[in-house]
Fold this sequence. Notes:
single chain, alpha+beta
Amino acid sequence: xxxxxxxxxxxxxxxxxxxxxxxxxxxxxxxxxxxxxxxxxxxxxxxxxxxxxxxxxxxxxxxxxxxxxxxxxxxxxxxxxxxxxxxxxxxx
Length: 92
């Protein structure tokens, strides 16, 4: 099972643009999306690991697959296309 963790911040202008695109991709590929706020949901240790917001962390069956920062929505879509098998019900 694939999961995308989106880490953004309310004060981040880029996050406001990227988040809806990430939500749309996760819905398209039926991938679980976990949304975290940098300021409200992360402790100091977790914040220290984040160099830019938004940050996207992708896991597959609990194992880390990739981490993307800022405007790498195309990279997320490519990762989902590679790792998620669409069912026939998702076809046209």
